[in-house]
Amino acid sequence: PYTDVQSPHIQWGNRFIFIHANMQQDVLKVGFPNPAGWLAYHVGGTLFVKQADYHAGAVYPDFGSSTECYCRPEFIELETLGPLVTLAPGEDTTHREVWRLFANVDFVPTEEAAQSLADRLGLGA
Q1: How far, in Å, CA of 18 to CA of 109, rounded?
Q2: Contact yes or no for 75/48 (Cβ under 8 A)
Q3: Which residue ranges make up each domain of the chain?
Q4: How far apart are CA 54 and CA 51, in angstroms?
Q5: Which of 38, 52, 57, 73 is geometrically suited to a Cys-Cys bond with 80, CB 3.0 to 4.6 A?
Q6: Phi, psi of 112, rounded to the nearest 5 degrees
Q7: CA nearest 77: which of 11, 30, 15?
Q8: What's the mean pLDDT in 83-96?
Q9: Where on the phi/psi map is residue 122: left (φ > 0), alpha (ψ -120 to 50), or beta?
């Protein structure tokens, strides 16, 4: 109910998806499988990167989404999801995220700029 794939807030690329989270009143949620395992948010020269392992062949919730982005006027959420697992009593599972902040990052949302930045930061794409 949150996603209009033709929303002006979504910029579809061949390798990257850019979400323009300048919501005034709309709400947007988009999810997808993300083998690269990372997503990022850039604002005011600061870049926040969130990373989590992607498990190829695993079953993920929300139609196979390992990454989701939820935007509303008040906030943005960058979410990583772990594979669905069945646990027996006493068992546990772990979903680990790594958060990184980078200062003084200039960025324009283009495929070339995103790839260059990903390469510079050592992120898979």
Answers
A1: 7
A2: no
A3: 10-84+96-117
A4: 9
A5: 52
A6: -65, -45
A7: 30
A8: 97
A9: left
